[in-house]
Amino acid sequence: MAICPKILANLAQQQGNHERIAVVSASPDDTFSILQQAKGWRVIASEAQNRAQRLNVGIAASASEVVLLHHPATLLPPRIALQQIEQAMTDPQVVWGGFHHGFDWDHWLLRFTSWYSNQVRARWGRVLYLDHCIFARKTALEAIGKVPDLDIFEDTALSQQLQSFGPPHLLSGVVTTSARRFQQRGFTSKPC
Predict the structure, then answer these.
(1) How many folded domains does the chain comprise?
(2) What is the distance, to the nearest Å, from the Cα of residue 97 to the centroid of all Cα atoms in its chain?
(3) More confident residue, 118 or 10
(4) CATH number of the domain encompassing residue 14
């Protein structure tokens, strides 16, 4: 499945002049060509085998002081996401963080998952999912060796390593993640 045009439009509407890097591994869809045709993207073809490896290629390629690890099935808060990150990073005590999380489908289990992710994991456990669209100072990411090279739970391992710089800073904006995988795996309730 190629990158969703809604995701590209959401990223294009963010205010400011920011570096946009997409790291794409070989796949049978059109993601690479779609991104090459999109305005303002630096597209890197990679032999990375998992998401962590792709993220690390992007981190290494970035010239920015702050890196946003965007989850490809998640919409950032319209127009304000990057401004919120910039504002948070004016505080030298803020090293990493993410946004509040929500889903694009109203189901009680998904509401609970987002609540748990925002309140319990983020605030008490100091762990963010990549669905939160984690951002961090590049120097901190380099100091911990970037994203741990794991096929799953790389976001948990990343958060645990970033905790050495303090707790995550949770921004007020809400990112919206596609619930497609939950819908396809057998939720029987209809969306509200």
Answers:
(1) 1
(2) 11
(3) 118
(4) 3.90.550.10
Query: What range defines the domain where residue 57 resides?
Result: 5-184
pLDDT of residue 25: 86
**Complete DSSP assignment for 128-169:** --GGG--EEEHHHHHHTTSS---SSSHHHHHHHHHGGG-S-E
**CA proximity to 9, closest of 33, 32, 39:** 39
Q: Of 122, 74, 66, nearest to 91 (Cα)?
A: 66
Cβ proximity of 157 and 86 under 8 Å: no
Question: Looking at the predicted structure, is the pLDDT value of residue 186 above 90?
Answer: no
Under 8 Å between Cβ of 42 and 22:
yes
Cβ-based neighbour number of residue 160 at 10 Å: 15
CA pair distance 166, 178, nearest whole angstrom: 29
Which residue, among 70, 99, 74, 50, has the nearest Cα to 179 in the 3D structure?
Answer: 74
Tell me the C-alpha distance between 78 and 173, whole Å: 9
72-125 pLDDT, tens digit each: 889 999 889 999 999 999 999 999 999 999 999 999 999 999 999 999 999 999
| Average pLDDT value over all residues in the chain | 90
Residue 37 in this model has a pLDDT that exceeds 90: no
